[in-house]
Amino acid sequence: MLSLAKPVAETVARHLVATGQLIDEDPAEALAHALAARRLASRIAAVREAVGLAAYHAGEWQTAIAELRTYHRMSGLQSHLAVLADCERALGRPERAIDLFRGADREKLDQAVATELLIVAAGARGDLGQKDAAVAMLQVPELTSETAEPWTARLRYAYADALLAVGRRDEAREWFSRAADVDTEGETDAAERLLELDGVVIEGDEEDEESAEAIASGPGAPGAVPARPDADLAGDTEPTADADADEDEDDDEGDEDDEQDEHYEDDEQDEAAVAAVPSDDLTDDELTDDEASTVAAGTPGDDSGAATGGGEPTASGGSDTAQR
């Protein structure tokens, strides 16, 4: 934010810090702070990212899409594709979520981003009724890796949920167990799902029940996709003053007007970009080469032999597959 005058930069920084602190507990208030920052500094990529992530947590799907697309364009990064795909699912457009997955250069993506995008795309297959295809998509080498990564529990949980959706109950139980084994942070409700499959009923207070239900709910539920900024919102935001105070004040007024104009231009461009995304109907026969080869190969092999091969896709809603 060195391009901003010091008083403006400090105000924007306070709004961004408040956004980061409130985004999990009060998404609506976090979004209000992010929008306040955008009014002052719409040309700053981190500000547009903050608005997009806050909008996602607050359930403002269209705003989240527009802002995160703007952030990707401004920063040159593609770090929130999974969030964008989950927003498309929440808007009832699973085909677009799959298009994002197909169009991504996964070799250039961070492994965590690529994995989350895969989970959301599998969920989109489930939205379309292609449940066997969802199982096939998730049969990747990372599923049986002995090294536990931050996303391993979420991937295994999504796979277990997909197996359960096609009636493979015993295999689903095994993978819920595997997810619970590596879920040290409690990101998923794998342990509870495992007990449920074993017929164990645990009665808790209503808040606990609502929390567990939220984890397995539809797309975009808080935490459906880990929505973290690329940089710490509370990082160093101290700008340097390159001009005297009077010139800064004059520049601020002109900058704010220009920023407002660019904000509206950005939004119009983003809305046009969203509308331009193809929404062709996807059928079971339109799996990618990777998906088709995975179906033919069956479930990834592992020493335990817990899972069997996936069948030919015949047909993961909510972030029930994106949820952990």
Termini, distance in Å? 36 Å
Query: What would the principal axes of the Cα set say about the shape?
Result: elongated
State the order of secondary-structure elements, H for helix, E for strand. Answer: HHHHHHHHHHHHHHH
Strand count, sense and barrel status of the largest sheet are:
none
Strand content: under 5%
| Total of helices | 15
> Rg from C-alpha positions?
22 Å
What structural category do the secondary elements indicate? mainly alpha
Estimate the helix proportion, in percent.
55-70%
Give the integer mean of the pLDDT values.
75
Total strands: the figure is 0
Low-confidence stretches: 209-217, 232-287, 290-324
Notes on the structure:
Helices cover 60% and strands 0% of the residues. By secondary structure, it is mainly alpha-helical. It is built from 15 helices and no strands. It has helices at residues 6-22, 27-40, 45-57, 61-75, 81-90, 94-103, 111-127, 131-137, 152-165, 169-182, 190-197, 206-215, 245-276, 289-297, 319-322. The protein starts with 5 loop residues before the first helix and ends with a helix. Helix 1 (6-22) runs antiparallel to helix 2 (27-40) and helix 10 runs antiparallel to helix 11. The model is unreliable at 209-217, 232-287 and 290-324 (pLDDT under 50).
Describe the structure concisely.
By secondary structure, the protein is mostly helical.
